[in-house]
Amino acid sequence: MGQIVLQLSNETLLKMKETYHKFLIATPPGALFSARTANTTITAYKSGKVLFQGKTPEVEANKWGSALPNQKHAHKKKETKHRYLPDQDLFTASIIGSDEAGTGDYFGPITVSAAYVKSDQIELLKELGVRDSKSLSDQSILDIAQQIFLLEIPYSLMILPNPKYNQLQKEGWSQGKMKTMLHDAAINSLLSKISPIKPDGILIDQFSEPHVYLNHLKSENKILPDSTYFITKAESQSTAVATASIIARASFVGEISRLSKQVGFTLPKGASAKVDQAASYIIQKKGVAYLHNVAKVHFANTKKALSHLK
Ligand code: MN
Q1: Lower Cβ count inside 10 Å, N or C end of the chain?
Q2: Ligand 1 centroid to residue 268 C-alpha, Å
Q3: What is the CA(13)–ligand 1 centre distance, in A?
Q4: Å from CA of 242 to ligand 1 middle
Q5: Order of strands, edge to edge, in the sheet holding 40-45?
């Protein structure tokens, strides 16, 4: 199946809707209208983008305009070469993407999600605002996550609660190993969820060199699933990874508000001086041992919080 995207004026969109009025079908969320002819499904969005999908999408698309040129990433940072880098094709294929949240935050768990996005869902997810969750406010993350759930995108979610995190850390696990095992668990759980469907590939937002990831897997007698790729900043190129990043972030936001209720005040995110103060306050009110329930205690914030109390 091929697809073509055109950028068209509002006037043209109105004309199109008129032309296809006999072929209109249910409008997907976020779209203006959708029509299906004998060989093409046409979906128009408020932004003026129109998606033509089918065996010969050019038949209809050519009536309205010429395709958008492929956007080149002119000022992209040079990627360290390794054999697990994806081809450009993977970004428009039906793939599993995985990403995590909470790794740099003193309070709260690490959350890792994997999401399976089919190629014909990419444009709609983009229209719904699915992009790198780091550039979005907590509220928009929760809103967009809601939309993702409504679309019933298959996903999995792993949450590593603080007590377990601290225990593994004490046993000598690096954060890199924890992340590796969480990504692996999320991906495998999703692979069985969508079985017998096999994704065109699996893309992990790269957080360590692939050989380090592979060594962690090996240390727990696991192997990398077929067609797994790694690239840094994957969420900016792959909608599947961006979807996973939103789900992981939404879960992290939810966990932080749950833990905030538990401690009785709003826990700050990140690992700043504000976080040290919050940790000091918790130590004063509940004792230092309590931090094991809500924080990644090996972070320097614990020492700083203790030194504030002296
Ligand atoms: Mn990431």
Answers
A1: C
A2: 20
A3: 37
A4: 9
A5: 2-7, 49-54, 40-45, 31-36, 24-25
For 91-124, write each residue's pLDDT tens digit: 999 999 999 999 999 999 999 999 999 999 999 9
pLDDT in tens, 195-215: 999 999 999 999 999 999 999
Phi first, then psi, for residue 153 (nearest 5°) are -70, 125
pLDDT for the residue numbered 74: 43
Characterise 285 by phi-psi region: left (phi > 0), alpha (psi -120 to 50), beta (else): alpha
Q: Which residues contact 171 (CB under 8 A, 6 or more apart)?
A: none
Residue 40 structure tokens: 């093409």
Distance 11 CA to ligand 1 centre (A): 40
Ligand 1 centroid, distance to 78 Cα (angstroms): 17
- How much is the pTM? 0.76
Which pLDDT score is estimated for 76? 46
Q: Distance, CA 114 to ligand 1 centroid (Å)?
A: 12
